[in-house]
Design a protein that fits this description.
CATH class of chain A: Mainly Alpha
Largest interface: A-B, 27 and 29 residues
Order of helices and strands of chain B: EEEHEEHHHEHEHEEHHH
Radius of gyration of chain B: 18 Å
Oligomer: heterodimer
Strand content of chain A: under 5%
CATH superfamily of chain A: ABC transporter involved in vitamin B12 uptake, BtuC
Strand content of chain B: 15-25%
Structural class of chain B: alpha/beta
CATH architecture of chain A: Orthogonal Bundle
Shape of chain A: globular
Largest sheet of chain B: 6 strands, mixed
Distance between the termini of chain B: 44 Å
CATH topology of chain A: ABC transporter involved in vitamin B12 uptake, BtuC
Number of helices of chain A: 13
Helix content of chain A: over 70%
Radius of gyration of chain A: 20 Å
Strand order of the largest sheet of chain B: 5-6-7-3-8-9
Number of strands of chain B: 9
Order of helices and strands of chain A: HHHHHHHHHHHHH
Distance between the termini of chain A: 50 Å
Chain lengths: 296, 245
């Protein structure tokens, strides 16, 4: 498919992936320095399990007349109605999982083990709920992997508002968030609202993941939250530098991934993840080289 | 600016501190005065950190009152607690002390940046403003953290094991700087330490924590070895249960 044709047919999907490429790595960079990158894997999976759960319950809600008497098929194909419904369940899954991880705290093993366990459970719930969905497992699977390029203008607008709005909040609270993330005791002594800033970060992350899962799919989220910050960190000489470089790598990864997907007729989500990994490669090689020269 | 006529900055009256229903420290009656230099000492697990948290305000007393007559407090954490994964320069770290005074557009003023640079310079770190936290030695990090605490214009400075992972020269620079500020500005300094020998010449009194309470001693009379009838190093390495109960 030519780039012109792709733009004509999939304009909103392309724009959604580009916005995700520029913004999600910034949230990922915060997760990375806070040593919670595993959340970049677990949270989209929580959101996906919420969406699959919503699909399973959809016939019941239709039967209750919640969609103005529309039949199941029309509800599923009406992107506006379906988006709001699925978004609610994505948010339910994300914030439910996030709250669970926070509530469990340090009581169950290491952070990595807790998040890995949560990822396993959320994956199982996703598959089981999708299997029980009246619209079929393949339909749900297609939406969750983001292969179907079904982003419409309403979904794009929602994604852009949530991601860019969240980014704005992180920029506004940048200094406080750095201090709270690295030294909460000092932040408390300086009179900073530690709990409110932690809550703000959780809400921005949760909403971005919920909306991102419904628009571009969890696979792109996995890749963009985790890979660009890892590639950017070895070159970063300041926190702002890390955020800018992560956003830059994510944007380049998204552009190259979309280009490869359309030229080679491949699904876009795995292409974006693969190209993001290629973009992050110089950073990993540099980090490896630097660590070997330091130790020798 | 707080009224210099008020001699004391913090009053602890009949306070009890602990976690949940378990009291760690009881019957605390302490006062922090301007220009006072205090060492907080005691065996491992005696409750030094609990007292520190109570004074800082992150732990509320279950009984009694901790009255703060200033909200201008500075805190110097142990440098090992800062994660070098954060790509922060020395200057960025120091400027955190000025976060409560950020401008309307959430940026630091030129005046704050100049003050941060001169603080770094006064602590022997001139020219290293752009170095990353991960590139600084333990002693340099500790001095950067002291500069951050001082940029907050504190009236009380809390120092948590400032000599931990720091060479003798760096420890000397830190204590001399604090001494100067206690004399010039009436800064009160409270230091939790396991290495009293390094701090002995820089304190006026010692708060000795043992058996769940705090004994206030004059620094001139303080001899940790005689207090427990054993060498300080033995106290240092002993477990809390064995020594305090």
């Amino acid at each position: 498919m030519s780039i012109q044709e792709a733009w004509e047919f999939f304009r909103w999907s392309i724009l959604a992936i580009l916005v995700a490429g520029a913004t999600l790595p910034v949230i990922g960079a915060w997760l990375f320095v806070r040593r919670t990158s595993f959340h970049g894997l677990a949270l989209p999976q929580f959101a996906a399990s919420g969406v699959a759960f919503g699909f399973m319950l959809l016939p019941w809600f239709v039967a209750q007349g919640m969609f103005g008497g529309l039949p199941l098929g029309e509800v599923a194909s009406d992107t506006h109605t379906a988006l709001n419904y699925h978004l609610s369940f994505a948010a339910l899954g994300t914030f439910g999982g996030l709250s669970l991880l926070v509530l469990v705290g340090d009581r169950l093993g290491t952070e990595g083990a807790r998040v890995a366990g949560a990822f396993a459970v959320a994956s199982a719930i996703t598959i089981l709920c999708a299997h029980r969905s009246p619209l079929g497992e393949i339909f749900v699977h297609g939406i969750l992997t983001g292969e179907s390029l079904i982003v419409g203008i309403h979904e794009f607008e929602t994604l852009a508002v949530v991601l860019l709005g969240g980014l704005g909040l992180l920029v506004w609270w940048h200094h406080d968030l750095v201090l709270v993330s690295m030294d909460s005791e000092s932040a408390f002594v300086l009179g900073r609202p530690v709990k409110r800033i932690e809550l703000l970060f959780m809400v921005v992350t949760g909403l971005s993941v919920s909306v991102g899962t419904m628009s571009v799919g969890p696979m792109i989220l996995f890749g963009l939250l985790v890979l660009p910050p890892m590639g950017a960190r070895p070159f970063a000489r300041s926190m702002r530098g890390l955020l800018w470089k992560s956003a830059g790598l994510g944007t380049v990864g998204a552009i190259l991934g979309l280009f490869a997907a359309f030229r080679l007729d491949l699904p876009p989500s795995p292409c974006v993840v693969a190209t993001s990994a290629v973009c992050a490669l110089p950073g990993w090689l540099f980090a490896g080289w630097r660590s070997s020269t330091r130790s020798s | 600016m707080a009224d210099r006529a008020i001699a004391h900055l913090m009053d602890v009256r009949g306070a009890q501190l602990g976690y949940g229903a378990v009291p760690i420290l009881r019957d605390l009656n302490l006062r922090i005065e301007r220009g006072q230099r205090v060492a907080i000492c005691g065996p491992n697990g005696a409750g030094k950190t609990t007292l520190f948290r109570g004074l800082l305000g992150s732990l509320s007393p279950s009984v009694g009152v901790i009255e703060r007559l200033t909200d201008r407090m500075g805190y110097l954490p142990q440098s090992e607690r800062l994660d070098p994964l954060f790509p922060l320069t020395a200057l960025e770290l120091v400027l955190q002390g000025a976060i409560p005074r950020l401008s309307g557009v959430r940026t630091f003023s030129n005046g704050e940046v100049s003050r941060a640079e001169s603080l770094l310079s006064s602590l022997g770190l001139g020219g290293q403003e752009r170095m990353l936290l991960s590139e600084l030695s333990g002693g340099q990090r500790q001095r950067v953290l002291l500069a951050r605490a001082l940029l907050a214009d504190p009236e009380i400075l809390f120092l948590d094991e400032p000599t931990s992972g720091v060479d003798i020269e760096a420890a000397r620079v830190i204590f001399e700087q604090v001494d100067e500020l206690t004399k010039e500005r009436g800064l009160a300094a409270l230091t939790v330490t396991h290495h009293y020998d390094q701090l002995a010449a820089h304190v006026d009194s010692v708060w000795w924590i043992t058996n769940g309470t705090v004994e206030v001693l004059d620094a001139k009379d303080f001899n940790p070895a005689s207090l427990l009838g054993r060498r300080w190093s033995d106290v240092d390495s002993a477990g809390s249960e064995e020594v305090t109960r």
